[in-house]
Write a structure and sequence with these properties.
This is Piso0_005014 protein. By secondary structure, the chain is an alpha/beta fold. The chain has 18 helices and 21 strands. Bound molecules: adenosine-5'-triphosphate.
């Protein structure tokens, strides 16, 4: 008996977050109607300080309700009864938030920048300019660009260590808005860690990161947690690899609350047994790039045929720093491509040249259907975008949250507004046969969400709305930039892939993803490499079994 009470005492002394028989809801009025987040109360959940007996300081949360559960852990939503959620050992330190919650799906001010704005600025600051450049990566991370806080004065050794751990040292003087998606995500992570929180909660921490960056961020999280004694909760998808340093795993659903909880091995084998095998086991190997047979640009298009898109000696250089150099790439009509490369290698830059978001798009770097694109050539931004369907993280962050699921989809049919515009002129857009086919194929998903405002949809449904918006006009060119990277419903993912592979077989498709199984099947791959020395190669896409 004595031993148990001592153990309990030690546990509560080490406990950062405790939930006992808690229900959660977004508004008081929902309490009366029993509208709670989870069908059952969360009976017993605990996050301890690192190194505590019982080892539950490093968690991975899976399941359809993982994002809501992480928000509950971060103190969002009302707890009922009020004391069912407590933070016994969280220290109050000068108002600095000791819990840091980072959700890469939610867009912040810096995400809401049109691509064109990013490329209009050719900013690469020299050493001497750093103190004046309020919007440098360094100042963003340390908070020195925020005049309302005194948080700009940080221990320089700690800051440089953090920058090194997250491979941001070489980017620290750049303008924050010029970072690529993956680079920006690493910068956000560094910002979350700058005030040394006690509990770090990250939903989808590896989203949009290339393989090396994923390993780097995973290792950094392990080291940071150890060196600074920070407890960590990660929200992951069932298909994701669980970092080896995770101690405990919970699977959470809206019906049951915490459905399964235990060691990573026990919980994962149990979850994976319950899901259709082809979606998890085989899913992980799906479209795996096993071998890449190099091909030459000239082999791609028959000499008599005009390529759909052709880059000829295209280069993009920022103040002497090349991002693309002498790109020669012929894209035959109706071929499906993967644009593959680590974060910052220029994938989005290529796409923005095609969509004319990049100012250099008009400098004779590419031809479409044999017509060289240059100023005065007769085509304009809207003509170009009428023929393109696109889903991308940049676009995702621009969708007005009050537009419904259905309005966002139908917006894909509105002509002459560009792809990043969500304005409607109010008139009804006629549906052609293909649009009807799209709507009937995804009838169930549409029925479930049609009138829900975009801001209230799950991220999976938001991604689906953007995907359907991109395909509904049967574009001549479809661009899928991380279009499926947040979808955590394996069956829906399969359905979208099959739509691209079969129903859009004749459309030219360019897609970006860092994880093989997030992609529909492709015919070819363009592989971009290099940080200082930029290069590229073209390959046949050889799929694994
Ligand atoms: N306006 C700018 N000034 C300076 N550098 C820029 C500017 N815009 C982009 N860059 C740099 O160009 C490089 C390529 O960026 P791009 O967004 O094309 O990469 P990416 O391959 O799409 O990366 P990710 O996988 O992270 O999305 C990055 O190193 C980025 O920092």
């Amino acid at each position: 008996m004595r031993c148990t009470s001592i153990c309990r005492k030690t546990l509560s002394e080490n406990c950062l977050l405790k939930i006992t028989n808690g229900n959660f809801t977004s508004e008081y009025k929902d309490l009366k109607s029993n509208k709670t987040l989870f069908g059952s109360a969360i009976r017993d959940f605990e996050v301890t300080k690192p190194g505590s007996p019982g080892k539950s300081s490093l968690w991975a949360i899976f399941g359809p309700a993982k994002s809501d559960f992480l928000q509950v852990a971060a103190g969002r939503f009302l707890s009922v009864p009020p004391l069912s959620r407590s933070y016994p050992q969280l220290q109050n330190d000068n108002g600095h938030n000791k819990i840091q919650f980072l959700n890469f799906r939610e867009s912040t001010g810096i995400d809401k920048v049109h691509l064109s704005a990013r490329y209009e600025s050719f900013s690469y600051k020299g050493e001497a300019e750093i103190s004046d450049d309020v919007n440098s990566v360094y100042n963003y991370i340390t908070g020195a660009n925020n005049y309302n806080s005194n948080s700009g004065h940080k221990d320089p050794k700690y800051v440089s260590n953090l920058l090194e751990l997250l491979n941001l040292g070489h980017l620290s003087k750049k303008w924050i808005n010029s970072l690529s998606n993956g680079q920006l995500r690493r910068a956000k992570l560094a910002k979350a860690l700058i005030n040394k929180p006690q509990l770090l909660i990250l939903d989808d921490p590896f989203l949009g990161l290339d393989g090396d960056s994923t390993k780097l961020v995973s290792r950094s999280l392990r080291d940071i947690s150890k060196d600074l004694s920070i407890s960590v909760m990660l929200g992951l998808r069932v298909q994701d690899d669980v970092p080896e340093w995770i101690e405990k795993v919970a699977f959470v659903t809206h019906e049951d609350g915490i459905k399964i909880c235990g060691t990573p091995e026990s919980v994962l084998s149990s979850i994976r047994e319950q899901l259709p095998a082809e979606t998890v086991h085989a899913g992980k190997n799906k479209n795996k790039m096993t071998s890449t047979e190099k091909i030459h640009n000239d082999e791609l298009v028959h000499p008599d045929r005009v390529p759909h898109i052709e880059f000829k000696n295209a280069s993009v250089i920022y103040r002497g720093l090349p991002i693309l150099q002498d790109l020669n790439w012929r894209i035959p009509k109706g071929t499906h491509w993967r644009i593959f490369g680590a974060n910052g290698t220029g994938k989005t830059t290529i796409l923005s040249l095609i969509t004319a978001d990049h100012p250099q798009s008009w400098r004779s770097v590419l031809s479409v259907d044999g017509v060289l694109r240059k100023t005065g050539s007769g085509s304009n931004f809207f003509d170009i975008n009428n023929k393109i369907g696109i889903s991308s993280p940049e676009l995702h962050s621009l969708v007005p949250s009050n537009k419904t699921f259905m309005q966002v989809i139908l917006n894909g049919l509105v002509k002459n507004i560009g792809n990043s515009n969500f304005m409607f002129d109010g008139s009804k857009v006629p549906l052609d046969d293909f649009a009807k086919h799209v709507l009937s194929t995804f009838n169930d998903e549409i029925n479930a969400n049609a009138n829900t405002p975009f801001g209230q949809l799950s991220t999976t449904s938001q991604k689906l709305a953007l995907f359907l918006r991109s395909v509904i006009k049967k574009p001549e060119l479809l661009i899928l930039d991380e279009a499926f990277s947040c979808i955590d419903d394996p069956l829906l993912l399969e359905k979208c892939h099959s739509f691209v592979e079969k129903d859009l077989r004749d459309t030219t498709v360019l897609q970006i993803a860092h994880i093989d199984w997030e992609l529909p099947k492709c015919d070819y791959v363009i592989h971009l490499t290099g940080d200082d020395q930029r290069s590229y190669s073209l390959h046949k896409y050889v799929q694994g079994q």
